[in-house]
Amino acid sequence: MTSLNDLYQDARKALRDGGIESADLDARLLVAYITGHAPEDVLLKPDATVHEGEAILKDAIARRLKREPVSKITGHREFYGFDFIVSRDVLDPRPDSETLIDAARAHLTEFRSAEILDICTGSGCLLVTLLTLF
Questions:
Q1: What is the pTM of this model?
Q2: Cross-strand partners of 49
Q3: What's the first-to-final CA gap in the chain, in angstroms?
Q4: What is the pLDDT of residues 4-48, one digit of tens each?
Q5: Burial class (CB in 10 A: 0-12, 13-18, 19+), 70
Q6: Of 71, 75, 114, which is closest to residue 95 (Cα–Cα)?
């Protein structure tokens, strides 16, 4: 049996050795995804036992070492506190796009109603986030 920490340390080392600058975060996200744990559990519950998933994790690490984004490996991307499903067919939500949400929130609070268009640009995260907030 393997612990979350064992998987995390192995993944982190492989990614660091492969020159991935975000190795710590990527390893945590990949281990969490593969094991079904929350990303914070990888650090907060390091002794949790993992019964399977090592082969899948090795495949995920190999994909990341080929510079495939973590979101494309896991099929998920966090944006503005929400989890979005992503695929190879959509643009990833970017952290700098959260600036657009902040600007829209400031602008839209002045109106009782508004029309918002988000036309075929990716995951729909901008529109969904705004609709959720308003």
A1: 0.80
A2: 3
A3: 47
A4: 999 999 999 999 999 999 999 999 999 999 999 999 999 999 999
A5: buried
A6: 71
Structure tokens at 92: 């990833």
- C-alpha angle with apex 24: 53 to 122, nearest 5 degrees? 80
CA atoms 5, 30, 35, 129: torsion sign: positive
Give the Å distances, CA to CA, from 119 to 71, 82, 126.
22, 20, 10
Assigned token pair, 39: 């990303």
Identity of residue 11:
A
Could you tell me which of 130, 128, 121 has the C-alpha nearest to residue 89? Answer: 121
CA dist., res. 71 & res. 77, Å (int)? 5
Are the beta carbons of 70 and 120 closer than 8 angstroms? no
